[in-house]
Amino acid sequence: MPGGGPRRPAGRPGGRTVPPVVLALRRLPSPRLTGLGAGLFAAASMFVIGCLDRLLFDGSPLVYGLLFLPVSALTALWVREADLVTAPIGVPIAFAVGVVPIAGGPGGLGGRIMAVVTTLAVHAGWLYGGTLVAGLITSVRKVRQMGRRQRTAAAAPRATQR
After folding, report:
1. Whole-prediction pTM value?
2. Helices 124-161 & 87-103, crossing angle to 10 degrees?
3. Whole-number Å distance between alpha carbons of 104 and 99
4. What phi and psi values does residue 123 have, to the nearest 5 degrees?
5. How many helices (H) and strands (E) does the chain have?
6. What is the pLDDT of residues 87-141, one digit of tens each?
7. Distance CA 52, CA 100 (A)
8. What are the CA-CA distances from residue 40 to residues 49, 89, 90 (Å)?
9. Burial letters for 111-124: b for 16+ Cβ neighbours within 10 Å, e otherwise?
10. How far apart are CA 96 and CA 68, in angstroms?
11. Ramachandran region of residue 38, left (φ > 0), alpha (ψ -120 to 50) or beta?
12. How far apart are CA 28 and CA 61, in angstroms?
């Protein structure tokens, strides 16, 4: 019957429609970075954010911390599956790299180092939060990867029996 009844999207079982937000997210780039690449991405991003924070917001830890969370999430999403363990390791290092411009401190190397250490200690909540975000995302990705492997391994013997 032409034009009658609801149409099902092609390739979707059960006729579920995909929300427009999900479609928009699927169109975003999804790079796959190596462990080193993900760490460099996070460190470079946080350093640039730290410099911009120093210039625009006078080194506001709140702005820096809030921007650290999406960088942590992107790092965990963009690292390739073989290197998932590196994202929660590289993210805290990136936080420390980006703190250098906003830490301030008196002149000299010793004063700068003490300011960085103090800033890391005082704002450890942001550091833990971003590390937790990266850890949760990589854990979910790893569980999904293991499920796919298990389904593939279970389907292989059935395919050969036919």
Report:
1. 0.77
2. 160
3. 9
4. -110, 35
5. 6, 0
6. 999 999 999 999 999 988 787 888 889 999 999 999 999 999 999 999 999 999 9
7. 12
8. 14, 12, 8
9. eeeebbeebbeebe
10. 11
11. alpha
12. 29
Q: Which residues of 34-72 are buried (b: 16+ CB within 10 A; e: fewer)?
A: ebebbbebbbebbbebbeebbeeeebebebbbebbeebb
Q: What is the identity of the amino acid at 162?
A: R
Share of the chain above pLDDT 90, in %: 57
Q: Which residue has the tokens 């990266």?
A: 134
Residue 13 corresponds to which amino acid?
P
* Separation CA 14–CA 69 (nearest Å): 36
Which tokens belong to 145? Answer: 């990867």
Q: Which two tokens stand for residue 89?
A: 């390791």
First to last CA, the chain: 38
What dihedral angle (degrees, nearest 10) is formed by the CA atoms of 93, 95, 100, 105?
Answer: -110
The lowest-confidence range among 18-27, 50-59, 108-117, 125-134 is 18-27
- Which single residue is written with the structure tokens 């008196």? 106
Distances (CA, A) of 122 to 5, 9, 13, 96, 103: 61, 52, 51, 12, 11
